[in-house]
Design a protein that fits this description.
The chain has 494 residues and is mostly helical. The chain has 19 helices and two strands.
């Protein structure tokens, strides 16, 4: 076993070992401590892999079945950032739930075990060179995260879990069909059976693939993985799952799991574009689904009453913006990758704040959460600030990535996309700003005592806002190089 075999093996096995330890521990504090330690150890292994990639280039292991290049390394960084922050938040969140008697030790063991399993499954998605194994990773995330939705078990959370399972399983079945069609399109390459679905092999021989089979397969893949990514009109599971899941689970759903599904789609794009002669066929489909998601989300955001459902529709909107950026090609791909980071950081914070305020107020109804800046200054400010970032207020980083996507649309002369993007963004701005002001500055609820946050909570609330502000004003050189390398992997032009 060489160095990279060891690293990739640790990345997958550490979460499973940590999850096994978690389900055997007796007390809530020990369970959550073991979970945080497992995630931290996995993050260190991931950083070693990422460092190697950006210093020496792509790395491979397990006879080429595992492969990490700049694109997957970038997503691995984003994933670990979300998981580490969410694990620290889960420590505080679930200790409060346990003290209030809203979750049992058995429920905490189940949560920690599934949490570590979900980390392993998402890692598998990102490091797989075999597109079939990548599909297995996405299917595993569906099965593992479904049970995270109903912790603790309630009728509404059970209903959301089944809706998530059924809709996403149908979507993943479409993705499986698409994967088979892509494998069939490679018949002319005369590859060994074990190499038929290796992304590196398909990318090298893309010019010899069967265009009709590949196009049909990509359509199935876009619908299938797009369902898991929350693209409209396949998004109907997402508002229910986000509104019923515990806040840390919602954070990893929106902060990264949606990105993981979209990452799977993007792995196919350079293959499809090379096979079809770089005519933008797959990019047009991506732009279409992105625009539909933005418009659908804008229509629903106006009428929301539950803050977590509001944030869920923001996920639909921003996944649409990212997909539109990819569909525009060129600068749009760079901007979409930058927006992926911005959205993950911001949405993680917003669900942290919504979850903690939900514990304080005993509800997620926005009308009953008014005056949050006075009742809970730290988390009220965190939620208000994150909503301002989500609607694209300058000078935060999300404004800059959206501005770059607009520029990409202008450069490509995609006037229709430009107009719909601006229209949808304007509706979201007005609607979400009204909700944010009412929650932050409305009349304070007389039944809620002012809440003082601890040091860790203050860090979790304000550090993401500081990161988003800095990235909006200044792009660090290393991040710029990483984004450029990741965008170059896709190798498509507008």
């Amino acid at each position: 076993m060489d160095y990279y075999d060891l690293l990739y093996g640790l990345l997958l096995l550490l979460p499973f070992a940590g999850g096994a330890v978690c389900i055997s521990l007796p007390s809530p504090r020990r369970i959550l401590a073991a979970m945080c330690a497992t995630v931290a150890a996995s993050a260190l292994v991931a950083l070693l892999i990422v460092w190697r990639v950006f210093i020496t280039g792509p790395t491979a292991a397990a006879r080429g079945w595992f492969y990490v290049d700049a694109l997957s390394a970038y997503h691995l960084c984003v994933m670990m950032l979300v998981f580490v922050a969410s694990s620290v938040y889960a420590w505080s969140y679930f200790l409060k739930e346990a003290d209030a008697g809203r979750i049992t030790r058995r429920g905490l063991r189940q949560f920690a075990g599934l949490w570590c399993g979900a980390l392993a499954a998402m890692s598998l998605v990102l490091i797989s060179n075999n597109l079939g194994i990548m599909w297995v990773g996405i299917e595993a995330t569906t099965l593992l995260t479904a049970f995270l939705i109903c912790i603790p078990v309630k009728p509404a959370s059970l209903e959301a879990m089944w809706k998530y399972l059924i809709i996403c399983s149908i979507g993943v079945a479409f993705a499986f069909l698409g994967t088979l069609m892509v494998a069939a399109s490679a018949g002319g390459l005369h590859l060994n059976p074990s190499d038929t679905l290796l992304w590196t092999k398909l990318r090298q021989g893309a010019a010899s693939l069967n265009p009709m089979l590949l196009k049909t397969g990509f359509l199935c893949l876009l619908v299938g993985y797009g369902t898991k990514a929350g693209l409209a009109p396949m998004h109907s599971w997402l508002p229910d799952a986000h509104s019923q899941a515990p806040a840390p689970v919602s954070a990893i759903f929106s902060g990264f799991m949606l990105n993981a599904a979209l990452y799977c789609v993007m792995r196919y794009v350079p293959i499809v574009e090379t096979t079809t002669g770089n005519v933008g066929w797959s990019l047009q489909l991506l732009a279409l689904f992105g625009l539909v998601s933005i418009i659908v989300a804008a229509a629903f955001i106006i009428f929301q009453h539950d803050v977590k459902r509001l944030l869920a529709y923001h996920s639909v909107e921003h996944i649409g913006i990212i997909t539109l950026g990819f569909g525009l090609g060129g600068l749009g791909i760079f901007a979409a990758l930058f927006h992926t980071l911005n959205h993950s950081v911001c949405k993680t914070l917003s669900f942290f704040a919504a979850g903690r305020l939900g514990q304080i107020y005993g509800t997620h109804n926005m009308k009953k959460m008014s005056g949050s800046l006075r009742s809970a200054p730290v988390w009220g400010a965190g939620l208000f600030g994150s909503l301002l970032v989500l609607i694209g207020v300058a000078p935060f980083a999300m404004f800059m990535s959206e501005f770059q996507i607009l520029k990409a649309a202008i450069d490509r002369h995609a006037i229709f996309s430009l107009v719909l993007f601006l229209a949808g963004g304007s509706v979201v701005f007005v609607g979400a700003l009204g909700h944010a002001i009412a929650m932050a500055w409305g009349e304070k609820s007389p039944v809620v005592e002012p809440e003082r946050a601890g040091g860790i909570e203050m860090f979790l609330a304000f550090a993401p806002l500081a990161i988003l502000l800095v990235l909006g004003l200044w792009m660090p050189g290393p991040l710029l190089r990483i984004l450029k390398q990741a965008a170059d992997i896709l190798g498509v032009q507008s």
